[in-house]
Amino acid sequence: MKALVTGGAGLVGNALCRKLLEQGAEVLCVDNLSLGTLRHIEEFKDRAAFKFENWDVSRPGWHEKLKGRRFDLLAHLAANSDISLGRERPEMDEERTFATTFEVLQAAKALRVANFLFSSTSAVYGADPVMPTPELAPRLHPVSIYGAGKLASEAYISAFVENYGLRAWVYRFGNVVGRRLTHGAIFDFVARLRKNPAELVVLGDGRQSKTYIDVEDCVGGMLHAFERSPAGKTHAERFQLFNLSTTGTTTVREIAEEAVAVVAGGKSAIRYGDSPIGWVGDVPKTSLDVSKISALGWAPKLDSTAAVAASIRDYAEWSR
Amino acid sequence: MKALVTGGAGLVGNALCRKLLEQGAEVLCVDNLSLGTLRHIEEFKDRAAFKFENWDVSRPGWHEKLKGRRFDLLAHLAANSDISLGRERPEMDEERTFATTFEVLQAAKALRVANFLFSSTSAVYGADPVMPTPELAPRLHPVSIYGAGKLASEAYISAFVENYGLRAWVYRFGNVVGRRLTHGAIFDFVARLRKNPAELVVLGDGRQSKTYIDVEDCVGGMLHAFERSPAGKTHAERFQLFNLSTTGTTTVREIAEEAVAVVAGGKSAIRYGDSPIGWVGDVPKTSLDVSKISALGWAPKLDSTAAVAASIRDYAEWSR
C-alpha cells in the first residue's frame, strides 16, 4: 500500500505514519512544519519506505510534482489545530484548516486517489448539541473558526465524493492527546508549570468537561473503520462519518491537578478564572456518541482520564 | 438605513436593491458581473441613493476602500449560482461561492457591520433528506460543489457570529425564479427554444420535482425575517437559519411544457433523457419545511408553479 499523509509531522500524523509503516506501507509524509516538527518524524528517517517533503498543501497545484504517482490512500491531517490562535488570525486558520483541504481534494482528484481519510473534529457540532452527540446531530453550527474550517472541509469532501469518484472517511475527533503534543491544555500547562512551578493559572473556571482520546487509539480507530467499512455505491456509503473518541470525559481541573502532580510534584497553587469557557469559541462540554464505530468492533484501550494521564507523563518526558 | 449588497447585479440582488431603495435605504451594490449584468441595475442608475462598484469580493482586502464607512446591513448574495458549471470548474466555484463569503465576513468584521444576510440554498441538504426538509435536518452532506460552498459559507458565518459580534440571517432558498435570470432550467429552455423551436432537449427524465420561489417573494421573505426576528444573546438567537421557498413543487416536465407554450406556441417536440437527475450533483427532489419563517407571519404571494409560469413569461419578454 502507498499512502500520502498531509500534516504527517503533527501529533496524529506521527502516530499514523508509524502505524502505516508497521503495516508495511510506503508513506510519503508532507508537512509545512507550521505546528508539526522534524523531531516528530526523526524516528522514521532511516526507513526506506518513508519519505518527507516540506510542502505547503494550501497552495493550488502543490501536487504537480506527484503527477503520475499512484497512492492507495490519502490521509489529510494538515490543519491549524490551535483553536484559540484561529480566533486571533482567522485568515491564517482559514488557509491552514480549510484551504489545505480544498487543495488536497484537488490533489486527490488529479491523482485519482480512491480513498480519502480526514481528521475532522467535535468542534463542528458547536455549542449545546445533544450529548452524547451522534454523527447525525441536527445542529452543525460551529462557534470556533477552527470548527468552521473543519465543517467547510467536510462539505467539500462530501461534494467531491459525489462528483469525482473518491470514497471518504471523515473522523470527528474528540481532543487527541499523546506524547507529541503541539498545542492544547496539556501542552500549555506543562509549559507554564516549567516557567513557574509555584502557580498554575487556568483559563476559565476549570469545569469544562471534554472527551479525550489517546493518539494511538485514535489512529487505530481511523484504520479500523477504513478497513472494516463495506464497499457501497450510494453517497451515504461512500462518505463515511465517524465520531472517534472515548466514551468518558475529563474536566480541566483534573488535567490541571494531574499536570501539577507530574511536573511540579503536586506543589503548585492552581488559580482558576471565572468564565465557564477557556476562550471565545471554546466548547465547554463535549461528549460523543461513538456507537457507529463501536459497531464495527472498535474500542479504545485507554479511557479519557487514562489518556490524559498518559499524555501528561509522556509529553512531560518528551519535552524535557 | 445604509445597505451593502454583494452580487447586487444578479437575479436576487436586483430585487433586493429595488426593495431596499423603495424602503428609503441607501444602497451600495458590489458585483464583479461574472453572472450579473449592468442591465440588471440600469433601472437604478439615476437614483442618488444607489451606487455601484465593479469589485471582486473574493479578493482579500477588497473592502479597504470602504474603511470608515458605516453600514447597517450587509447582504451577501455574490456566488456562482450555476451548479453544473461548478462541477466542471470546482476551483472557480470555490472562489466565487466560498471565498467571497469568507472575504465578505472579513469585511463585516473590519467595518463592524452588525447585521449580515446570506443567500444559502437547499443544496446544503444534499440528496435524500427528510422531506419537507426542516432547517435542523440531521444530514448536511451536499452533493454539488455549489452546495458545498454554501455550507462552508454557513459554517464560517456561524463562527464569525460567535467570535466577532455580528448577527446573521441565513436563508436556504429553493430555486429562485423571476424576470432577470442568469442561469438555470428556465434560462436554458428559453435559449434552446429560440435556437431551435422545433425541439427541446431536456437533461434528465424531466421527473425532477423541486420547489420554486418568485424572486419578489424571496426578497420580501428575507427582509420580513430580518425585521421580525427578536433580539437575542445566545448563538442560536444571533445565527438565524430560515428555509425560504414556497410549500409546493414543480416538475421539470411542467417547466418544459410551459416554456414550449410561451416561447414556441406549444409546437416543439420535447425530448427527455433517461437519467433521474439532470447532471451529477443535481438533487432531483426538493421540498422545504418553511414553518419557521411562516411562524413569523410570512407567506409567498405565488406558489411554486405560478412562480415558474410568471418567470417564463417575464424572462422570455425581458430577454427578447
Please describe what this structure looks like.
The first copy, chain A, has 320 residues and is α/β, with parallel strands linked by helices. Chain A has 2 domains: 2-176 and 214-244, Rossmann fold; 178-211 and 248-286 and 302-318, UDP-galactose 4-epimerase, domain 1, CATH 3.90.25.10. Chain A contains 10 helices and 13 strands. In chain A, helix 3 (90-110) runs parallel beside helix 4 and helix 5 (185-195) runs parallel beside helix 8. The mean pLDDT of chain A is 96. Chain A binds chain B through residues 60, 87, 90-91, 94, 98, 102, 106, 109, 124, 126-128, 136-145, 147-149, 151-153, 155-156, 158-160, 162-163, 235-236, 239, 280-281, and chain B through 60, 87, 90-91, 94, 98, 102, 106, 109, 124, 126-128, 136-145, 147-149, 151-153, 155-156, 158-160, 162-163, 235-236, 239, 280-281.
Keywords:
two-stranded parallel sheet; globular; seven-stranded parallel sheet; 10 helices; 13 strands; alpha/beta; homodimer
